[in-house]
Fold this sequence. Notes:
This protein is mainly α. It has one domain. Helix content is 68%, strand content 0%. The protein contains three helices and no strands. Helix 1 crosses helix 3. The longest helix has 31 residues, at 45-75. The model has no long low-confidence stretch (mean pLDDT 83).
Amino acid sequence: xxxxxxxxxxxxxxxxxxxxxxxxxxxxxxxxxxxxxxxxxxxxxxxxxxxxxxxxxxxxxxxxxxxxxxxxxxxx
Length: 76
């Protein structure tokens, strides 16, 4: 169940990052759309879910930034 949540979370974040305004789409990704219930963790699940979304975005942005620098240098 947890691995399924992470897989769906990554799928949704990747889709959001392909958009012009990923923040708008990220706000619509519910915990239920990733296979979890809001009831878990004494009501803290939604907050944790939003943090997971933001952490994945940050991770991918940081991973892609060095690649973009290398691509830019090779074009010159």
